[in-house]
Specification:
This protein is 43% helix and 12% strand. It has 36 helices and 34 strands. Helix 31 runs parallel beside helix 34. InterPro entries: 6hp_glycosidase-like_sf, EDEM1/2/3, Glyco_hydro_47, PA_dom_sf, PA_domain, Seven-hairpin_glycosidases. Its cofactor is Ca(2+). It comes from Cherax quadricarinatus (Australian red claw crayfish).
Length: 1086
Amino acid sequence: HLASSAVVGNKYGSQIVTFWVLCCKTSPLCSSDNAIVNQRDIIEILNMCSKYFMRFWLILSATLVVFSVSETSSPLMSEEERLNLKEEAKEMFYHAYTAYMDNAYPADELMPLSCKPRWREVEQSRGDIDETLGNFSLTLVDALDTLVVMGDIEEFDRALRLVVRDVSFDNDVVVSVFETNIRMVGGLISGHVMAEHLNQLYGALGWYRGELLTMARDLASRLLPAFNTTTGIPHAKVNLKYGMKSPKLQSSRDTCTACAGTIILEFAALSRLTGDSIFEEKARQAMDCLWSQRHRGSDLVGTVLNVHSGDWVRRDSGVGAGIDSYYEYLLKAYVLLGDEGYLERFNKHYSAVMKYISQGPMLLDVHMHRPHTTSRNFMDALLAFWPGLQVLKGDIKPAIETHEMLYQVIQRHNFLPEAFTTDFQVHWGQHPLRPEFLESTYLLYLATDDPYYLRVGEQVLRSLQKHAWVPCGYAAVKDVRTGVHEDRMDSFVLSETFKYLYLLFSKPSDLIIDLDQFIFTTEAHLLPLSLARLSNLTVVPGPDNQGAQDSDVEYARSCPNAHFLFPGRHEFAETIRRPLKNFVNNVCPSRKTIRRKLRASEFQAGNSRHMGLLRDMGITIMALPDGRVQLLHTSSNAKSSDDAEEGLLFMQEMIELSKLQQEQPDSPPRVVSFLHVVDGHPTTTTIQAGPAQFGLDLKGNIQVNGPVVKATPLRACEQLGNEDEIHGKIVIIERGDCMFIEKARRLEALGAIGGIVLDNTPETSAKTSPMFAMSGDGTDDVNIPLVFLFSGDAEVLLNALHDQPELEVVLSDFDDKDIGKGSIEEVQVEVKGTREGGEETLTAGLDDAGLPHVISIINNRQQGSENLADDDLVTVVEGQQTAHSQLHEQEESQKHQVILKDLEKAKTAEEILVAAVRYVNVRQEQEVARGNTLMTEHSSALIVTELQSLLVKKTASDPSLLKSLLSVHLRELMAVLQQAAPSPSDLDASLHHLLNQLSTLTMTASTSLDESKKPVASQQPSVRGDLQKWDFNENSKLDHLAEKFQEKIRKIKKKYGLSPEHIESISDIQGTVSPQTKDHNRKDEL
């Protein structure tokens, strides 16, 4: 009891009691037959255990000392650590700066995920965010003085020359007055000041003659039309070229308090450096109006007001977004300009903020007219500047408290969310790498010299390196809860974030300029304090500020001295922080991390395991009559409370995923095409594929082709075992284990040019399963295309790859690839080739051969089942040879003669087509060389004549050859003719001419037909009633051939849009519909 009483409230009390009991157990008095009942027994035990007891107290005392130090302070940072962190911060800046200069300059910003420039009105609009951009090299101008802070005079010189040479402002673009002032005008003025300063100190930049100051004046003059209001409050936006006359600005009438109140520093500096008072006058008038519009009872200002009347549109008041930098510029205007009127106004506002808005370490918005009523239950990230402003004010204690609260939020989420609730949950999850927290950390370290803040900065640095670094700069975080990136790197990352991070780890001796001679603007630009000595003589005095001095001045004239408040305590910051230890966690304890079993993005309705997991979560699935699927979550049906909680998360993800997919534009299907050998014949296979809502958009003529390879492991959710085989190839991967876009990112990082995702459910097909678009995660940072194939459809591709390891595929749009209700189409084609050792070797793809993508449906039918029966065609046993002589009457080159000889030597239909295609290619090359981009009518007719002659000649010795050309290879023959013909009408004439020529031939019965190949009568459809085809006599066969041939030509022409004006009505033919319709019955189509 004595020992426990001696350390009441100490976490080690239980350890002391435990020691007491252990000592007692070593004494005979503590046997089961005895009990400690008096003081003498206790003394005897203590005497016996004295040596152990003293050792224990020595250990405990040392432990308590270590505990005290570790709980209230941070370990000192060694000089080596500090220097390493300073250099790392510098490297981080240059990683982002170099990425911008190499990939984006002279554009305003870099898109770090796409690694390309962001141009205004070129990239997809982001709304008001884009009003920061004016096509004036924003990032470089904003980062100029950071180069000086880093000590890089050489690069500063180069950047200055680029700005002077390339940047102009005569752009027809609407910009934010606020953002353009703090980033561009401030950046130009600061760049000018640094150039002059470096010239005076080091003799550098001898060529500079004030060009940046001239540019700043030009730009600020373009902002002045926005100030033409009855109140003097500027419009929020202005057109750089046309002022307020732009049609887009007709509805402009509201602006925020910070937008109007964050101009005085830059405009006053410009007036005092140029001698033109108009800028400071306009900015002062805006500040005066804001002061006059404050609520006289609370001394608070609202967030949004009307520029013409001055009436408040939004009356909520705080220190975050919409108001923040107005307070900052009141205090800094006093520091920079020496005008005490601004200080009196700031003190009045500051007193009101600390009275109504400050609630412990938290800063909560209130209604300006009802200041005891909170207006919202969340805080935004911009209020993180407030502790730094309090340091400048000299009020250190609340600055330490608010900063500590913010740091604990950061420790929970890695970054400070854009907004978080009063119980410290994420409200808005974005984090665009804002600098405000680092700014306050830097200023608190200057004020306290406490190494704790160096450790805070180190953690921020590590978070940036781990969660924001990308190969092309640093990417904003779209949601701190998921860590997903956003394709965005704002200019303030270079002008502020890395500047404050570098300064935090720097000593004054590390810098080439004396920062005590400057003040930071809200964009961390440096303005010289010497401006206070330059009077703006024509400025009209503002209204009387007596109202700022006639009330309680608790914060107005006092500067709380922390050393007086905590006498004898050098570590006063530790004393202030200690009561706030675990403040955030005590208000809202961190929830235990749930290891997710299934995410909405991974869910597959056909996967039995996934269905089982949903049942465990209490989720039931119901198919609606319109084909949609309804998910219902009932927590009481879940297998456990953890499953119920995961079910709720799953439903929330599904809702967000559904919203994301609805926002995505419609994605048409894609196709995967490849040339491979089937039964000895080169064949082009086209497979319908699902698109992706991210990556390269394969629309129109955009396509990607290349060799294909399978990933190892196939699902590509981890490091690949065959990474060296990926570069420059289209990679086959499998669905599952991670998101589609994660697979795409991994492939792109390894140099792949595309990806084909295979379904992981067996025997699925586009014919039986609905096609879908693969969704992303909301961040489209992928630049390669990804397509989806059902597993059943993909077997053809996998088999082809197995047979041909060097297989090449083409990923393209679905347009003009009309494959109807089927999912796979094949067409046998021949391509340009060379003969090596008597073997035909493919040397080029279909496009190289000049053949169009003529395709045919197999739709689960055996290939060739659509061909005509043997007896559908008659055999030509003899014919006229009149056309053959024409071939030798032409003066052709030797190359043509070689190809003609190949035609004559051809023994199969495939060889004929190969030679014909080669001839057409050579002739077209010849015509192009002569200046003709299209084949001439003479050339086209000649090709047709040659083919007719060859057909007639070949028929006399091999009747089956003609039969094969006009049945199995009819489409390929038409493709050759289409390539040779200069226009659809010429093709139409050529086809009819060929048919008429064949119709005039003498037809006789063929005795060489293989009777075993004749089909059974019942297996062949009738064309005219029940009349069987092979019952015709020879003349009837010729008539039937002509009609059948005409039908085929008309149907193929109609499908491919050939000479529609010549197509007769054939609505009575089964399976034929309008060519505009893709979804039609094609079971009898060729």
